[in-house]
Design goal:
There is one protein chain. This protein has one domain: Roll (Nuclear Transport Factor 2, Chain: A), CATH 3.10.450. The longest helix has 14 residues. Strands 1-4-5-6-7-2-3 form a 7-stranded mixed beta sheet, with helices on one face. Helices cover about 20% and strands about 45% of the residues. The chain has 3 helices and 7 strands, in the order E-H-H-E-E-H-E-E-E-E. By secondary structure, it is α/β, with parallel strands linked by helices. A hairpin with a 4-residue loop joins strand 5 and strand 6.
Length: about 120
């Protein structure tokens, strides 16, 4: 998967963590994703009824379509939250805008993510 990430200050560890998690999810790499999340992690998507957890992550990722390219255009962090947004391009030519919003267990720079909401909009 081709990945482009916008330039940033390099001094926002929670923003970098949510970007890394979002890339791992797009790559369907459960092992890499689990480095950024707690065991009580919950992942939901806007409008979707499915809520994924730490235990169901690997099997759920296998069911998702392959992403050919990902472009992260923006990221922000403050307090115990962070987000990143951009576009996903799929093999069939479909393109989605996404926004990943993460809640961390604390404001510490090495805090793990406990909750993730992802919003998708057709491009």
């Amino acid at each position: 998967m081709k990945t482009e990430v916008m330039l940033h200050c390099g001094n926002a560890p929670k923003m970098e963590r949510v970007i890394d998690l979002t890339i791992a999810l797009a790559r369907k790499d459960a092992a890499a994703a689990k480095k950024h999340i707690r065991e009580d992690f919950v992942w939901s998507e806007l409008g979707g009824e499915e809520v994924l957890s730490f235990e169901t992550l690997e099997s759920a990722l296998k069911e998702r379509p392959d992403v050919d390219a990902m472009h992260v255009t923006n990221g922000l962090s403050h307090g115990n939250g962070a987000m990143c947004e951009g576009t996903l391009l799929f093999a069939d030519g479909d393109e989605l805008y996404f926004c990943s919003v993460a809640t961390f267990v604390s404001t510490a720079k090495d805090a793990l993510i406990k909750r993730l909401h992802i919003y998708f909009i057709p491009a």
